[in-house]
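Journal club side-thread
Mid-discussion, someone asked how the predicted structure for our own chain would compare to the paper's figures. Pasting it here so we can look after the session.
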Amino acid sequence: MKFVIQKDRLVQSVQDVMKAVSSRTTIPILTGIKIVADHRGVSLTGSDSDISIESFIPTVEEDDQIATIQESGAVVLQAKFFSEIVKKLPLDTVEIEVTNKSNYQTVIRSGQAEFNLNGLDPDEYPHLPQIEDGKVFQLPADLMKTIIRQTVFAVSTSETRPILTGVNWKVEGNELICVATDSHRLALRKAAVETEFEEAYSVVIPGKSLSELSKILDDSSDPVEIVFMENQVLFKMKHILFFSRLLEGNYPDTSRLIPTESKTTIELNTKEFLQAIDRASLLAREGRNNVVKLSTVEQNEIEISSNSPEIGKVIELVKSQRIEGEELKISFSAKYMMDALKALEGTEIRIQFTGAMRPFVIRPIMDDSILQLILPVRTY
């Protein structure tokens, strides 16, 4: 194998596939990046057996010569060293050559710098999942990035119920519904999609996979093809394939958790409310689990307060655009509330309460595609 390639394209591809490489793996070869060169271009693959990422660099793109392949071949190089080396090479082009085919000795040259790395046999590298016929639909990259941001923070970090460490992606008709919950809070986001599916289809994608995918997605409206397979999901971008295993098991029916009526409704400015919760949480952190209280008071105002006996207390009045229904006193986690408010895209929000010990729902006033649900905390 021997080829010359533009350094910046190589560095970008290495950074993308590194997101799937784990230093803590029981399969030693997975600490490496597989490099394959043929007449079409150069492909790099990284995997930790849960996530696999393949990035392809074509020889020519838009009349620009990106790579020149002198000899086809493949090798696996230690990801940690290879990624550091290519970043620090002196010139804009890099030459990579396997000089000894029996032990995969590899030379990396750029300008006056020359590195010799011990490679590994590419045939021992696990194969990527086969793309069978799956359920296929598309989403723009920027929308997918937004959906992930608005849901993935609510997955569970505890392995006691592994299914809750993922986000449930369900396609019904022409609607994608994404739900994440850790059983104390819930994030839901809907989006319109065009599909050929006859029946509803549901998968659970690990939160970790979606977080890594989000780092690769750009803020363009380029379509990303999503393929649901038996136990894998594939996200296809222009030059990147991103595979993730799916979580096994049935996701709980969360629709029952979302209240349909409310006893108290409050409408607020998102930013003002978020900042008030942030200030109240300054004294709540030390106390019981970061809890703040919300009470309705007279004349369209709510009171946000927090009390830590050993530190002190804070009280702040926040103006509300509208308060409707019964008086209310409720306590909740400041962190959960701040996470939820940061995920909502709207300057005005509506919070609907059904009592001091019942879950409450937060929505942007002008947008029905997203909601956040939080379970209150008992403080007495």
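Post-session note: DSSP finds six helices and 28 strands in the chain.
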